[in-house]
Amino acid sequence: MASKIPLVQQCNGTKMQNIGLGTYTSLGGDCERSVKHAIDVGYRHFDTAYFYENEAEVGQAIHSKIAEGVIKREDVFVVSKLWCHFHEPEKVEYACKLTLKNFGLEYIDCYLMHWPYAYKFRGDEVMFPTNASGKVEMNDSVDYIETYKAMEKLVESGLVKSIGVSNFNIEQLKRLLKEVKIKPIHNQIECHPGLVQKELIEYCKSQGIVVTGYCPLGRPEPANKTPVYLFDGKLAEIGKKYNKSAAQVVLRYLLDIGIVPLPKSVTNKRIEENFNVFDFKLSGEDVKVIESYNVGERVIPMDHAKSSKYYPF
Ligand SMILES: NC(=O)c1ccc[n+]([C@@H]2O[C@H](COP(=O)([O-])OP(=O)(O)OC[C@H]3O[C@@H](n4cnc5c(N)ncnc54)[C@H](OP(=O)(O)O)[C@@H]3O)[C@@H](O)[C@H]2O)c1
Questions:
Q1: pLDDT tens digits, residue range 25-59?
Q2: Number of domains in the chain
Q3: Which of 24, 43, 50, 52 is labelled catalytic?
Q4: Do 100 and 37 contact (CB within 8 A), yes or no?
Q5: pLDDT tens digit string along 110-119?
Q6: Residue range(s) defining the domain that contains residue 11
Q7: Which of 39, 87, 220, 301 is close enough to 147 for a disulfide, judged by CB 3.0 to 4.6 Å?
């Protein structure tokens, strides 16, 4: 199966599998088991972050599969992210080394700046530092350009093979591209039928920046029947024509608009289902139906960070 998955060209000359396994909220044994299953299914691209507190389990799954002879280290593309409390330039290498230690790896394939804004540092484990009134303590004295320049040094020292960003808007990308030496290989953004962000995608493409898409399924909540496009029956009906589910229709659509989707699942059957999207083609009529859901609604608005001058939305 793995050999059939298209690869995407990246601006540093490397290639990566055109779909990745998301791992936010995959924890402990569930995380390790599901990453191992994904490797057996053929996934070779894994998305995690210091913030997800599961780098050790993702790393353990990779080590097990290397020991079993299923993969070699160079077969997998491992992405992790610098969290907002580590933005001060002098903390960046320290943060990256914590991540490498968690993974038990010698290098990360791609290290992203998780958000363009920073928080105050109150300890490695304090990911949302709050003041006496319970508000998250933003730290606008750190400009993401300075953080990124410290990340460039990680490429130079070999701790990471490449760097990129996440949740950057067009203006922030333009400013970054003017100031830095190493182009970000990715901008990881929220992308699903309810929030397509075509202008941002087009801008990234024009700069050779690969767009990876988070919440590709809109982070479904079956009890609330949200997002509507997964539960109102229209995409399920489209899927029937191709013997696919509504979720597979969504992933196919995202691939077709040039996104590398990162569906998360700890369920074996869904891990397989989400990977099985490379053998059908949506019609123009189908695409129109999917596009009718693009109302610009965010799953992750990060409202607490609105006061920051670096808030991207
Ligand atoms: N850069 C950022 O700021 C950022 C932000 C958010 C997320 N991310 C990354 O993007 C990844 C994906 O986003 P996400 O996890 O928020 O949302 P998502 O992938 O849209 O949705 C995950 C949810 O969908 C369920 N699911 C998976 N496949 C399904 C299918 N075929 N049919 C029905 N339900 C299915 C999963 O359930 P089960 O697990 O129970 O199967 C889980 O509850 C994250 O895991 C993370 O790696 C990045």
A1: 999 999 999 999 999 999 999 999 999 999 999 99
A2: 1
A3: 52
A4: no
A5: 999 999 999 9
A6: 7-298
A7: 87
Confirm whether 169 is domain-assigned: yes
- Write the CATH number for 224: 3.20.20.100
C-alpha to C-alpha distances, 274 to 19, 142, 278, nearest whole angstrom = 9, 38, 10
- Is the CB of residue 176 below 6 angstroms from any atom belonging to ligand 1? no
HSE of 135, CA atoms in CB hemisphere, 13 A = 10
Taking the centre of ligand 1 as the mean of its atom positions, its distance from the CA of residue 267, in whole angstroms, is: 11
Q: Is the beta carbon of 24 within 6 A of some atom in ligand 1?
A: yes
List pLDDT tens digits, range 173-215.
999 999 999 999 999 999 999 999 999 999 999 999 999 999 9
Cis peptide before 227 (omega within 30 of 0): yes
What are φ and ψ of residue 219, in 5° steps? Answer: 45, 75
80: left (phi over 0), alpha (psi -120 to 50) or beta: beta
Is residue 222 one of the residues assigned to a domain? yes
Q: Per-residue pLDDT averaged across 142-160, rounded?
A: 98
What would the two tokens of residue 257 be? Answer: 């608009």
Angle at 137 between CA 195 and CA 100, to 5 degrees: 75
